[in-house]
């Protein structure tokens, strides 16, 4: 029988005839059988030309930045998944107002963007287990966010906040809360998920956790000179331990390094945590602006020496290394404009930023004895120091 859509007509001989549709391809081989040909969709030369134009346009847009694949979370996560555990995190960008949070693989010598195109980043810090990164956006309203190291779960944990620090056990975060009405700040402690906030003290400057995560070391905004204090995490038992500024606690939890003012400049002083056994580090140049960074093994201290000049562009910044026992210091690299030193977890290497006026800013890594200095990344602006993932190791 013909198919249901066949039109039937009565012939002159009285027999029933059918008018086949246009899709009919021929007579059936058997009575009652029908054969239909599926419509073909040939790829014409015009279709190929259109495809080439589309692909060429896409490549051009990617190359010129009209389309940025890093704007898409799926692309960023795919890139990050290919990185090794040996990496550093820092903020960089094409301007001093818009930045990206970057992960750089020290083995593969390649980078992936973790957070893309945000206002200027004020600080970056890995969680002690290397699974999360805390970062700061100081553009109003200031806020502190936390993101998983694989690029997921990006969320704000504190607003009107700056200077976030993980506790050594990873359970708490310390930060300054800004009070716009009074221009004061309050030191606030909270759980790592942003809950259970409580204020500790007002008008603090530098601050840092003790190694046991139970106390906080800080300095106050000076009225007649700075002093270094300790306070328990619950806000009790505040006590002065030294006179100075910019204190940093050694990873062993037993010693502190801080800046002591002298005529014409400052010197680096090391003491026990209770302030006893204080001694000055020898041979430190007198014009000093100390950014103190202990090595993870607590044996050495990196700091910056600034040599002033009436012409601001002629000022020099040089990284020095001091033996914590006071046995001497040495310049890590030649005089220039080197800033933001950070130690590798094994204490064998240091990352730093070279900031020469009128040129790209360059991220370097150098051995702790000053050898094998080499560039790993450059950009118009590098806003933060390179923070080493706790699992990072430099291969020899």
Helix/strand-derived class? mainly beta
- Described by the principal axes of the CA atoms, the overall outline is globular
Radius of gyration: 33 Å
The description of the largest β-sheet is: 5 strands, antiparallel
Ends distance = 83 Å
Number of contiguous helices:
2
- What is the helical fraction, as a range of percent? under 10%
Low-confidence stretches: 1-12, 14-25
Count of strand segments: 31
Q: Average pLDDT value?
A: 79
Beta-strand percentage?
35-45%
Structure description:
- This protein is 7% helix and 44% strand.
- With 396 residues, it is mostly beta strands.
- The chain is globular.
Main traits of this protein?
396 residues, four-stranded antiparallel beta sheet, 2 helices, 31 strands, 44% strand, disordered N terminus
Nutshell version of this structure?
With 396 residues, this protein is mainly beta. It is built from two helices and 31 strands. It is globular and about 85 Å long.
Task: Please outline the helices and strands.
Elements: E1 7-10, E2 16-19, H1 45-64, H2 73-80, E3 87-93, E4 98-105, E5 110-119, E6 123-126, E7 132-137, E8 143-148, E9 155-159, E10 161-166, E11 172-179, E12 184-191, E13 198-202, E14 204-209, E15 215-220, E16 228-232, E17 239-242, E18 245-249, E19 255-262, E20 265-272, E21 279-280, E22 293-294, E23 300-307, E24 316-323, E25 329-331, E26 338-343, E27 349-354, E28 361-367, E29 374-379, E30 381-382, E31 387-388
Antiparallel strand pairs: 1-2, 3-4, 3-30, 3-31, 4-5, 6-7, 7-8, 8-9, 10-11, 11-12, 12-13, 14-15, 15-16, 16-17, 18-19, 19-20, 20-21, 22-23, 23-24, 24-25, 26-27, 27-28, 28-29
């Amino acid at each position: 029988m013909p198919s249901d859509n066949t039109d039937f007509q009565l012939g002159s001989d009285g027999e029933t005839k059918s008018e086949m549709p246009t899709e009919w391809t021929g007579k059936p081989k058997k009575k009652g059988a029908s054969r239909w040909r599926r419509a073909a969709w040939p790829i014409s030369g015009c279709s190929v030309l259109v495809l080439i134009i589309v692909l060429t346009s896409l490549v051009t847009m990617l190359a010129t930045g009209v389309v940025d694949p890093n704007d898409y979370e799926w692309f960023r996560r795919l890139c990050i998944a290919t990185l090794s555990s040996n990496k550093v995190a820092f903020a960089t960008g094409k301007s001093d107002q818009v930045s990206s949070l970057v992960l750089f693989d020290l083995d593969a010598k390649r980078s992936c963007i973790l957070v893309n195109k945000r206002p200027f980043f004020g600080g970056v810090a890995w969680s002690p287990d290397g699974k999360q990164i805390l970062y700061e956006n100081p553009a109003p309203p200031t806020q502190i966010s936390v993101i998983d190291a694989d690029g997921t779960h990006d969320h704000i944990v504190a607003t009107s906040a700056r200077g976030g620090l993980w506790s050594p056990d990873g359970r708490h975060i310390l930060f300054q809360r800004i009070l716009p009405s009074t221009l004061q700040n309050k030191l606030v402690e909270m759980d790592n998920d942003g809950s259970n906030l409580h204020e500790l003290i007002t008008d603090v400057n530098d601050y840092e956790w003790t190694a046991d995560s139970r106390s906080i070391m800080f300095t106050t905004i000076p009225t007649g000179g700075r002093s270094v204090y300790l306070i328990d995490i619950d806000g009790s038992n505040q006590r002065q331990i030294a006179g100075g500024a910019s204190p940093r606690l050694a990873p062993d939890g037993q010693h502190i390094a801080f800046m002591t003012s002298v005529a014409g400049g400052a010197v680096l002083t090391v003491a026990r945590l209770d302030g006893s056994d204080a001694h000055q580090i020898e041979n430190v140049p007198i014009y000093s602006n100390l950014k103190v960074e202990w090595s993870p093994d607590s044996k050495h201290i990196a700091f910056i020496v600034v040599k002033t000049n009436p012409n601001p562009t002629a000022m020099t910044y040089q990284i020095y290394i001091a033996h914590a026992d006071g046995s001497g210091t040495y310049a890590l690299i030649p005089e220039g404009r080197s800033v933001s030193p950070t130690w590798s977890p094994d204490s064998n290497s240091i990352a730093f930023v070279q900031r020469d006026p009128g040129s790209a800013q360059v991220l370097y890594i150098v051995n702790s004895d000053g050898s094998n200095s080499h560039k790993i990344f450059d950009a118009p602006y590098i806003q933060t120091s390179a923070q080493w993932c706790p699992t990072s190791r430099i291969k020899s």
